[in-house]
């Protein structure tokens, strides 16, 4: 049975989320943070995250957000706007973009910064909409990068909504962090840490993350951030993440090593035995093969990953700028109270 509980609420720089009405459903570990404005009929799966810190998020009525899905912004660059009657499946990421009315973002799909998705669009499971894309109304898009595939009729669109909402789950969040972190480490209250997880100064583990070391160890270096709804698993060996690394939203890391000053983009899947060397940018939606080595000084992308460009000073600057930004976010959220949304009649 689905477990319903109030979403976790926290302010950012004194700005708290605004709700047009009580959410229709909130699963265990769901969190709504910062300057978000939410419409009526909001449905939040377990460990889903709506985080409006570096910019605002506006969401229309009847928004369904699946288990482990993430809505976020691009700091001081792009807000996120979501229209009426939008469905986002499990593990989907809506990041710093505009989504029109009646859209369906299927399981594990990623919509990236500056994109504009018109009304009645379907983005199929696992697809990646590249930054600043414009998706035309009434079409089904698929692939990485997402491309037009077919027209979607009104009846087909209704079916996509229903199928995706039927698949939404509200499982349990499991054991969580304490929010204040340990020392100068930030562990969000809805993050799950199990086994030996060693974190150095300035590490941030964000909302909905799941770190499971099993009988091994997860080691995370100084200043690194692991963003919302990412999963790190040890199955047969340790996982090691170096200093000054960014692990984007909804990333999966298994039995691998990420060296210093690299970034693993949103929705990427890093297979067992992978080594990501220093000074690497792994593009959103990338998937590696077991035991693959991603050599330094390159941008890697694709399924499987391949080098597509050299690192530049501009790209390195972007990676470096993410680190203090996330430390500031962590300072704000560690210093504010996290509490469930009050139900009608409560004080």
Automatic annotation (TrEMBL):
Coiled coil: none annotated. This is Gamma carbonic anhydrase family protein. It comes from Cereibacter sphaeroides. The lineage of its organism: Bacteria, Pseudomonadati, Pseudomonadota, Alphaproteobacteria, Rhodobacterales.
